[in-house]
Amino acid sequence: MRALAMALAVALVGPRTASAQGTTVTVPVPATQAGRGAGDRADAAADEDGRASGRLTEAALAGAASAVGAAAPGPPEPTPADVQAAAGMRVYLMTIGQGDVVWERFGHNALWIQDPARGTDVAYNWGMFDFAQPNFLGRFLTGDTKYWMEGFDARAMVDHYARNENRTVVAQELNLTAEQKARLRAYVEWNAREANKFYRYDYYRDNCSTRVRDAIDLAVGGALRRAIGGAPTGTSYRSHTRRLVAGSAATYTGIQLALGRPADAPIDAWEESFVPMRLMEHVRRVRVPTAGGAPQPLVLRTDTLYAARREAELASAPSYVIGYALAGLAIGALLLVLGRAGAAGRRGADAGFGVVAGLWTLIVGLAGTALLLAGTVTKHVFMGRNGNLLAVSPLGLVLFIVLLLAVGYRQPAPRMRWRGRAAKLAALLAVLTVLGAIITLLPRVGQESTELFALLVPVHLALWWALRPATGVTRPRSAA
């Protein structure tokens, strides 16, 4: 999910990483790589939450064999000695709340393992990636970005999110048996090996939070999935995305445009746990079998390590239909005024219409081409079957070229011919847009794009009307 926001952020709001835009980011020192310099690590990698600019996979850890690096042998089973050594361990689900930057709005999490016997205090983070990876941009655009997991000094991580980013940090101690703790530690240490740590990121189905969820589920023998899998939530991937990026107009619009019908499918509590804050809520209510067999709460206690001074996370997304409709009416009115004045022979108005209409159709055409490619030739599953293509399509590029010809000719006859052709294309675009708006409202067929069509319908109708042949007006004068 965050990857999608960051995908748009790369295009709309440039990435903020350890080296981008002059921003320096303090990355916690990895507890598993104490010999490396902190500066080298900060330049080499960015954690998913604050430093990243893309979040994009597809294989969940349904068990050890399907975990990261499935081609490699799975994690070893803990021995009796391992179980005995794990008895004094404490395991926490660390959840980091929302931040200021677009991709920080989705939260973050990690598995925190304290082992007094070993003297280690490690937070395992599945949200790592590196801009210097070979073909990073190509992988990013096609939905094939490689992420990895790594262990960090837990206290340094908490301090970073609290002091540097003013984000809430909550630690939930998990009620695990010694055997479950040993199994979890064996898994994360196996997963942290170079051969096993990489995975292909999917912003909804395989992200930092789902990896943490699956690791916990592995430790408790599938009890977490049995408890929350299939539990209805009344939410979808889109509904969570909308509420989490609400307030950022450009990103909100871009994500609404990019997501297709698959993002509107209802999701259960297991799937909803791709949002770290929702996983935190779900584990709080789960009861799992213990050594004695009696079900006990999965969470022993919850500690808020830092409470951020910021607005609370929205429970649901507000509706922006009226705002989008007003924006559409304003742009449409401008096109009508300039277009009809230009048709009456006012050269200044004609030039103004050409600029506004040309810019609009260029944006529509480029965005439509990107949507078409994303839904057909990439691994961005949730951008497929996108009804927005009816209104935002490559047809906009054709209309853009025809508009340039209509405005560019100085002689009346060719200007009128090209203007007529532009009017026909605009009429087709308007009809498709209205059709898309109708389909959007149909149950089981449409997708949640009402706000976008509230913007697009008045603009495309106005564009067509402005290009229609004028009656009872003076025809354009020849410049000769």
The tally of structural domains comes to: 2
Q: Total number of β-strand segments? A: 12
Q: What pattern of helices and strands is seen along the backbone?
A: HHEHEEEHEHEHEHHEHHEHHEEEHHHHH
Mean pLDDT: 85
Provide the low-confidence segments as ranges: 10-71, 472-480
Shape: elongated
Helix content: 40-55%
Q: Oligomer, anyone?
A: single chain
Class from helix and strand fractions: alpha+beta
What are the main properties of this structure?
eight-stranded antiparallel β-sheet, 14% strand, 46% helix, alpha+beta, 17 helices, 480 residues, two-stranded antiparallel ribbon
Characterization of this structure:
The chain crosses the membrane at residues 320-339, 351-377, 389-410, 422-443, 449-467. Pfam families: Lnb_N. Residues 90-223 form the Lnb N-terminal periplasmic domain. Helix 3 (80-86) crosses helix 6 (178-191). The chain folds into 2 domains: 2-306, no CATH class; 321-467. The protein starts with a helix and ends in a 13-residue tail after the last helix. Mean pLDDT is 85; it is low at 10-71 and 472-480. It has 480 residues and is of the alpha+beta class. The chain has 17 helices and 12 strands. The strands form 3 sheets. Strands 1, 2, 3, 4, 5, 6, 7 and 12 form an 8-stranded antiparallel sheet that branches. A two-stranded antiparallel ribbon has the order 8-9. It has helices at 2-12, 38-44, 80-86, 136-142, 154-164, 178-191, 208-219, 223-228, 237-245, 249-258, 269-272, 276-285, 321-343, 347-376, 395-408, 412-440, 450-467, and strands at 46-47, 90-96, 108-115, 120-129, 146-153, 169-174, 198-200, 232-236, 266-268, 287-289, 295-297, 299-306. Strand 10 (287-289) and strand 11 form a beta hairpin.
